[in-house]
Amino acid sequence: MVAVLAMAQSQTIGFKIIDDGVLEERLRLAHPKTQERYQRLRTLFEKTGCTGLREQKVRGSKEPNLICALPADEASATTIVVGAHFDSAGGDGVLDNWTGAILLPSLAAVLRQQPRRHTFQFFGFAAEEKGLLGSAAYLKALDAEGRKRIAAGITMDSLGLTSTKC
Question: How many structural domains comprise the chain?
Answer without folding.
Answer: 1
